[in-house]
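Morning F.,

Quick status update on the modeling queue. The single chain you submitted on Monday has been processed. Sequence for confirmation:
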Amino acid sequence: MIKVVFIDIGNVLVDFDIRKLLGAVVAQSGKTPQEALMGLLKTGIFEKYEKGLVTTPQFFETVRAQLNYPGAFEAFRDSWNGIFIENAGGVEAFHALKKDKRVFLASNTNEMHFEHLEARYPFIKQAHGAVLSHKVQARKPEPDFYRKALAHAAVPAQEALLIDDMQENIEGAREAGMQGVRFTDLAALREALKPFGISI
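Structure tokens below.
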């Protein structure tokens, strides 16, 4: 029996559009969005920031240097955080699940994004807890993320289920002994949860 549901944030509870960030930041760098993104990916800074291995100021300085970004940190932060829009179906599922299950956020995220989401969207604080990559120094689908998530929720793997938009993260959960359902939309999620005896 599923007693705990872990639910991803990005593309489940909120959608995001990285093009908005690139448009706002890269436009001032003299590089194309593709050049800027590939250059940043090569530095490994995104993964380090999501795993809490660098601070927000260190992250900003790396991005600023890589892109020759002339703006202030506050302007960058607003662009960095201005990519989200609530996913109504995901949020409806979240509230429905909370009626019968303990629901924990389980997200690959970073300090700036989570602080923004927590301040802007009330439902973020309504979860029973949160397992965040930058707090646990591990990212899905790394096995350590699932181990720490299960320990945080104090639940055996066989009694836990992950809802996530990425199949590789679902596979990681299953390898950890959990159940997993990929999120595409609310209607599909309702059907996918029925075999687990969960009705939303």
